[in-house]
């Protein structure tokens, strides 16, 4: 093979040794070396590019020690025949390559006796700036703020409280907009429909209410059927149905119910479960205090399989497609659509692009201090994720599906590879239990809130603390990052809603 007029890899003993090590790989010539890599010495490494699922890109090739991310990016774009040059990140053994190959291998003591696998991952072509200041502290709630959520289009913000109200906030003036009254007990959870048209909330007495977000008025009578408090709400994905009509609720009464917001009635009930249901993702998956995750047929409501492995309650679930399921057709550009059909088409395109040809992945977090990564057609987990010393309270896939973040009562946040489940890093800094997580839309930043009254922003590339955000007077229960990346909302025991820019 030739780089800049120098012949490398032609030494017989070296070739024989590499040939014995990796018989299936043959060094290939990289065309147009000037635009891809520049080799100033004869030291090379045999490499193989793969996507996050392990699918090889081209054949094995010799790369010089001084090839860095920029050169690798040019090379991958060329191998993929991308007309528009796209940004990529590169990983070796789950560690990001941000320096030249030789320097990385020396620093991390990576063996090159075998072919070096370099995983390439597409990055968002936009970049979200980290929030660094509180732009508004808004009083109004008379009880602790338990949940906050931006609408998928990023234009509205809602919060639910122990004062039995849902509040809508004006993001332009950063002031209260509407107080939605109707619940008789604490509001525990809320969910916006993926088309941003509907907002529903669930309370401690098992009632579900829907709201007119333009007036703050309650729409119709409460959805009744659950006997105990509502633990989570999940809407039917926009790529399956547009306009949005159906949503699922889970309850401590051990039931999952599906409701039609137009007919205002329960259309499907998954009952007869053995214990409290803690989390539901549409009606495909739900977790329970019985230590299992159940997988359902979405059309007939039949139980397909149970995923077993946890030794205690399962608290939290997240799908690698979760972000696009939540935001539907909306992204950071704020584009608006003229019809439900157009929205459904765009949502389907976004879903297919993220999912690819791989099966959908699911991660679960439990009171047993562990997590499991699943590919639900299989009953056995891909990997058990161990390392937390206390209850795993929240798990959350990044918008691009490449990372899993976990929050624990052990005061730490951990980062894992979203494909393999391999451990990547532990983020230390909180001095109290970590309650909830939220990702920036570009998957480069992670936000956490804690009992210690702070929010913290973590840099996924550098694996360190990017920004410390004190300001709350008491523990922070809820946090959300707007889909456009411009704002963060948080709420907690001090009864205040804070907006961060």
What's the SSE blueprint?
Layout (H helix, E strand, L loop, with lengths): L1 E2 L2 E2 L4 H10 L11 H4 L7 E7 L5 E9 L4 H11 L8 E5 L2 E2 L4 H8 L7 E7 L11 E5 L6 E6 L6 E5 L3 E6 L4 E7 L5 E6 L6 E5 L4 E4 L6 E6 L6 E6 L10 E6 L4 E5 L4 E6 L6 E5 L3 E4 L3 E5 L6 E6 L5 E6 L2 H6 L12 H16 L6 E5 L4 E4 L8 E3 L6 E6 L5 E6 L4 E5 L5 E5 L6 E6 L5 E6 L4 E5 L4 E6 L6 E6 L6 E5 L4 E4 L1
How would you sum up this structure, described in words?
Strands 4-3-7-5-6 form a 5-stranded mixed sheet, covered by helices on one side. A 4-stranded antiparallel sheet has the order 8-39-38-37, with no helix packed on it. Residues 1-24 and 26-41 have low confidence and may be disordered. Strand 11 (165-170) and strand 12 form a beta hairpin. It is 11% helix and 41% strand. The chain is globular. The chain is mainly beta.
């Amino acid at each position: 093979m030739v780089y800049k007029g120098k012949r490398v890899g032609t030494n017989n003993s070296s070739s024989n040794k590499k040939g014995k090590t990796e018989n299936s790989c043959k060094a290939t010539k990289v065309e147009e070396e000037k635009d891809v890599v520049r080799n100033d010495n004869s030291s090379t490494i045999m490499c193989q590019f793969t996507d996050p699922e392990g699918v090889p890109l081209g054949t094995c090739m010799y790369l010089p020690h001084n090839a860095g991310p920029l050169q690798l990016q040019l090379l991958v774009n060329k191998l993929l025949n991308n007309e528009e040059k796209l940004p990529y990140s590169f990983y070796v053994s789950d560690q990001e390559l941000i320096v030249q190959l030789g320097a990385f291998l020396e620093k991390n003591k990576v063996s090159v006796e075998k072919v070096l696998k370099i995983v390439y991952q597409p990055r968002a072509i936009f970049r979200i700036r980290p929030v660094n200041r509180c732009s508004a502290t808004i009083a109004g709630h008379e009880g602790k703020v338990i949940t906050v959520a931006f609408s998928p289009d990023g234009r509205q913000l809602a919060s639910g409280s122990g004062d039995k109200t849902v509040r809508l906030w004006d993001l332009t003036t950063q002031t209260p907009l509407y107080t939605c009254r109707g619940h008789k007990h604490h509001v525990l959870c809320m969910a916006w429909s993926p088309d941003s048209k509907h907002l529903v909330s669930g309370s401690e007495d098992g009632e579900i209410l829907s709201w007119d977000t333009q007036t703050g008025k309650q729409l119709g009578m409460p959805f009744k059927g659950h006997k105990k408090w509502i633990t989570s709400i999940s809407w039917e994905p926009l790529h399956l149905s547009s306009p949005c009509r159906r949503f699922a609720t889970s309850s401590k009464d051990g039931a999952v119910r599906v409701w039609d917001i137009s007919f205002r009635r329960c259309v499907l009930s998954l009952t007869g479960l053995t214990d409290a249901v803690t989390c539901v993702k549409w009606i495909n998956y739900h977790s329970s205090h019985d230590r299992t995750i159940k997988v359902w047929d979405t059309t007939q409501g039949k139980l397909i399989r149970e995923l077993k492995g946890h030794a205690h309650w399962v608290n939290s679930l997240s799908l690698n497609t979760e972000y696009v399921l939540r935001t539907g057709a909306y992204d950071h550009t704020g584009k608006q659509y003229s019809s439900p059909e157009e929205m459904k088409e765009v949502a389907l395109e976004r879903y297919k692009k993220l999912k690819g040809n791989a099966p959908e992945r699911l991660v679960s977090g439990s009171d047993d201090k562990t997590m499991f990564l699943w590919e639900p057609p299989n009953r056995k987990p891909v990997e058990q994720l161990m390392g937390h010393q206390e209850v795993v309270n929240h798990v959350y896939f990044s918008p691009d599906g490449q990372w899993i973040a976990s929050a624990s009562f052990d005061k730490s946040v951990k980062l894992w590879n979203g494909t393999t489940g391999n451990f990547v890093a532990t983020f230390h800094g909180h001095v109290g239990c970590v309650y909830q997580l939220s990702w920036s839309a570009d998957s480069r930043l992670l936000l956490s809130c804690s009992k210690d009254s702070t929010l913290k922003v973590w840099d996924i590339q550098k694996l360190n603390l990017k920004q410390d955000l004190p300001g709350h007077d008491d523990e922070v229960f809820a946090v959300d990052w707007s889909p456009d990346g411009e704002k963060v909302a948080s709420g907690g025991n001090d009864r205040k809603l804070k907006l961060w820019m």
